[in-house]
Write a structure and sequence with these properties.
The complex is a heterodimer of chains A (152) and B (738). Chain A is an alpha/beta fold. Chain A has six helices and five strands, in the order βαβαβαβαβαα. The chains are: A alpha/beta (152), B alpha+beta (738).
């Protein structure tokens, strides 16, 4: 079974469009949707609302930069400083290409950074590329490999 | 004639006038040891050592009463050789010097000093000016002494004596209004006049009487006779007197504020002796004059300083209402020339010069100001510029005097006042140049005939009060400048805050404005794709317009953000080879414009420019991209890249044979979102050239454009050359920290 994709997005329209894009890219991975940074961390840490979910990290986290409560950069920082989570691939999705965001994201160890193109067609292509690379092609790091075997 | 060898004039200044080892013959001297009272030396005109001891026994000298530094005190009278003598003593270091001189006529029961106190003091106190004071004293001095001529002169800044008042008998040459050259009174004589206020030479034709050592005592040649009234004077001076036709002379010092201000000088054709009491009165009169002059000058100076202080306050108050830049000083309303009674003034800041009133040409003022600032003094003052400043001569006659205050040496900032040349005619009492050697020995001058000299290259002297006023102004201006600097620093902080706000704003714009555009474009795409069959052509066309409009708005937002980023990011300049950059960009364009026939004509030698490589590439991409874009439809399109070299820097020019533009719109070309072509004809956001201009101007360079409709356009820019190494490092740092 494929590991899920965690999509963290607060804007309902962006969410819908991203889901359409993911759908069009024909990925078989389940997409878990959370609407803010706090929920994302709950999911990843299996705490709060997600305390009862099955073990295992997602294949990739698609993370919006601007999020309520805990923003994308904070989520990224938490992921990278939490031992069981730190090897999860994280792709930053954002409207902005402000330099400081790009720089900060890379400093925090983001795997990719995508400025959502205005053109929907390009957006679909970008999401498809990302999904194929991170959810299908990319060989997960050793830690997550063991986890997968246990669940397979 | 003289027992001592005649020194020549050159040795005059080193002559030991305080220790001549001899006295004048009109009196006698005994020198005692102050502690033991034993006789040390005596003058050779005593009958013998015993006679000295007898005289001392009659009028004892009390060492306790005579304090060092005081002029001789009267000890008593005694008969010597059948005459009455006055004995006066003073203390000189380890010695007591007792002098014996014939007394005056006993008939006068009223000491001369009482007359001075009763008759002269009241008019002196009422005198309105220094000249009036001198007139009164000259008259009284002549009456007291009975000398044929009595004159009072003041030493000017150069040490020349200027005659202020004169009283004379018939047959005496007048020196009123004349000057005596400084060389007439050598430095060590001047110093002695400053401490010992009276000197009498009853007969210039005298033979000095040497001092003899008492039995068993050392040679008295080194005994200090500075305060002895009988001290034998310099043989050069005696020759000077004889040349002047004077047999007797007396000088009384005028000492003001511890400085030898001038002399009361009395002459007579015949030998003339003044007894002790008369001399005391003369010395007293000299002291009265000194005090009155000091008071008059002091009052005048205080009044001047007060008036000028008021002026300084006014100027500073007016300056405080302006932007604080010192060039405001030359505004006529401030009248800063009056602060120093100048005819013109100037403010110089580095290479810029602002003037008011009569000044030398701006170039000359600037040069002079830089010379003054380089001296490193806070205050510069001269009333004879050509003597101190190598390029001063050509500035005459408009400027001979300069007063200047330096505000900043780093910025070569100073304020100057100017005064015109004042050609003076000086009447010398004898030609001061005619002290030429005659037959091997230099003698004092022979002629005291009036001799006129025209003095050029000088202005009226700057008064101490005026110098103080401009110094005070300097302090106030520096305070003002510092305060402005603080305000500027405040503005910089404020600017930083506003910039931060702007950054936050553009972030919001980028994020929040871009998202809705994306949503519109995205949903329209979805509708077009999923529901294409349900729409008619018109509906599909409308939706495509919606989508294009949203995409375009998104591009505008992106372009605007790029533009604002250009203004905010720091410059990191280095030497950039524009040839490499141009070649890369041309390759890029050849790819994107595939299928078009473009003839590229790139000059073989393109300059290396001092620029931020990334920003320079953005600018060149815009220029080359524009050339490619606006030549669409030309077959072949021709694009030429050439090197430009101007006095202000080097750069590039990109020319094309495209659609061009009318020159009347050239001013709009570089504005944000200014477009000269319809969107259907040429796509674009209209921000490219605004970016080019902003980039070039951030580098301190300039841009230009030439065009003609349908004939093509040329765009060019130059950047200033690389600063020298140190500056480059500094510039790099300040840009990064900004």
């Amino acid at each position: 079974m494929l590991k899920p994709i965690l999509l963290v997005e607060d804007d309902p329209r962006d969410l819908e469009l991203t889901l359409v894009a993911l759908e069009r890219s024909q990925l078989a991975n389940e997409v878990i949707i959370v609407r803010d940074g706090e929920a994302a961390l709950d999911y990843l840490n299996r705490s709060g609302e997600y305390a009862g979910r099955a073990e295992g990290n997602p294949a990739v986290v698609l993370l919006d930069l601007k999020l309520p409560k805990v923003n994308g950069l904070e989520v990224l920082q938490a992921v990278r400083t939490t031992e069981p989570l730190r090897s999860i691939p994280v792709v930053m999705l954002t409207s902005s290409h402000e330099e400081s965001d790009v720089l900060r994201s890379y400093q925090l160890g983001v795997n990719a950074y995508v400025v959502k193109p205005v053109e929907f067609k390009q957006f679909v292509e970008a999401i498809a590329d990302l999904g194929i690379f991170w959810a299908v092609l990319n060989e997960p790091p050793p830690g997550s490999l063991r986890t997968r075997r246990r669940h397979d | 004639m003289s027992a001592l060898p005649l020194p020549d004039l050159a040795q005059c200044a080193s002559e030991p006038i305080r220790t001549p080892g001899a006295i004048q013959p009109h009196g006698r001297v005994a020198v005692l040891a102050a502690d033991s009272g034993r006789l040390v030396a005596y003058s050779a005109n005593w009958p013998g050592e015993d006679a000295v001891r007898q005289a001392l026994a009659m009028v004892p000298a009390d060492a306790g009463r005579l304090q060092p530094g005081n002029s001789p005190s009267w000890l008593g009278s005694l008969p010597l050789d059948g005459r009455t003598y006055d004995a006066a003593g003073h203390r000189q270091g380890e010695h007591l010097v007792v002098e014996y001189e014939p007394s005056g006529p006993a008939a006068s029961m009223v000491a001369p000093i009482y007359h001075v106190a009763q008759q002269v003091l009241p008019p002196l106190q009422q005198a309105a000016s220094v000249d009036a004071l001198c007139g009164i004293v000259a008259r009284e001095m002549k009456r007291l002494t009975g000398f044929g001529r009595c004159l009072i002169y003041r030493f000017d800044a150069d040490g020349h004596g200027e005659v202020l008042a004169e009283r004379l008998d018939e047959g005496y040459q007048s020196y009123a209004g004349h000057r005596f050259p400084a060389s007439d009174v050598p430095a060590q004589a001047r110093e002695l006049y400053r401490v010992n206020h009276i000197r009498l030479i009853p007969n210039a034709h005298y033979d000095p009487v040497p001092l003899l050592a008492a039995a068993g005592e050392p040679d008295p040649g080194r005994l200090d006779l500075s305060f002895a009234s009988l001290r034998s004077v310099s043989p050069v001076h005696l020759e000077y007197m004889r040349n002047m036709g004077t047999a007797a002379s007396m000088s009384v010092s005028i000492v003001v504020g511890g400085r030898l201000w001038g002399l009361i000088s009395c002459h007579d054709h015949a030998p003339k002796y003044l007894p002790f009491q008369t001399r005391v009165a003369c010395e007293h009169l000299g002291r009265l004059l000194s005090l009155q002059i000091q008071a008059q000058e002091g009052n005048a100076e205080v009044a001047q300083r007060l008036a000028l202080h008021q002026r300084v306050l006014t100027v500073v108050a007016l300056m405080a209402e302006t932007d604080g830049t010192l060039q405001r000083l030359v505004e006529p309303g401030l009248a800063i020339t009056e602060l120093a009674s100048a005819t013109g003034a100037a403010v110089v800041l580095n290479d810029t010069c602002w003037t008011v009133g009569n000044t030398p040409p701006a170039d000359a003022v600037r040069k002079l100001a830089h010379w003054i600032v380089a001296r490193g003094d806070d205050l510069f003052c001269t009333d004879r510029l050509p003597e101190v400043y190598p390029d001063g001569e050509p500035l005459l006659p408009a400027c001979a005097g300069v007063l200047a205050v330096s505000i900043s040496r780093v910025h070569r900032h100073c304020v100057l006042w100017f005064r015109p040349e004042l050609v003076q005619t000086i009447r010398w009492a004898g030609d001061p140049r005619k002290t030429l050697p005659s037959q091997g020995r230099i003698s004092p001058r022979q002629s005291f005939d009036s001799w006129q000299e025209r003095v050029r290259g000088r202005s009226a002297p700057w008064l101490p009060a005026q110098q103080a006023a401009v110094s005070e102004l300097r302090q106030a201006l520096i305070a003002l400048v510092l305060r402005r600097a603080e305000e500027m620093a405040g503005h910089a902080v404020e600017l930083g805050r506003v910039n931060k706000e702007l950054e936050a704003f553009s972030y919001t714009v980028s994020h929040d404005l871009r998202a809705p555009m994306r949503h519109i474009a995205g949903y329209v795409d979805l509708v077009l794709e999923d529901n294409a069959d349900k729409l008619d052509d018109r509906g599909r066309r409308y939706l495509r317009h919606v989508k294009d409009a949203a995409s375009y708005a998104g591009q505008l937002v992106d372009a605007l953000l790029d533009f604002s980023r250009l203004g905010r990011s720091g410059l990191k300049p280095s030497l950039v080879d524009t040839r490499v950059v141009v070649e890369d960009l041309v390759d890029e364009l050849k790819q994107s414009e595939r299928g078009r026939a473009i003839e590229w004509d790139i000059a073989p030698a393109l300059p290396r420019l001092w620029a931020d490589p990334l920003l320079l590439q953005v600018a060149l991409r815009n220029l080359l991209g524009n050339a490619a874009k606006y030549t669409r439809g030309r077959t072949p399109a021709r694009i030429r890249v050439a090197a430009v070299s101007l006095p202000e820097g080097r750069g590039l020019e990109v020319s094309d044979n495209g659609v061009g533009f009318p020159m009347k719109y050239v001013g709009k070309l570089f504005g944000v979102f200014q477009r000269l072509h319809r969107t259907e004809d040429f796509d674009g956001t209209g921000i490219g050239l605004a970016n080019v201009k902003r980039i070039v101007e951030r580098h301190g360079g300039s841009v230009w454009a030439r065009g003609e409709p349908d004939r093509g356009a040329t765009f060019g820019f130059v950047l200033p050359p690389a600063p020298n190494n140190n500056d480059a490092a500094d510039a790099g740092r300040s840009e990064e920290s900004a």
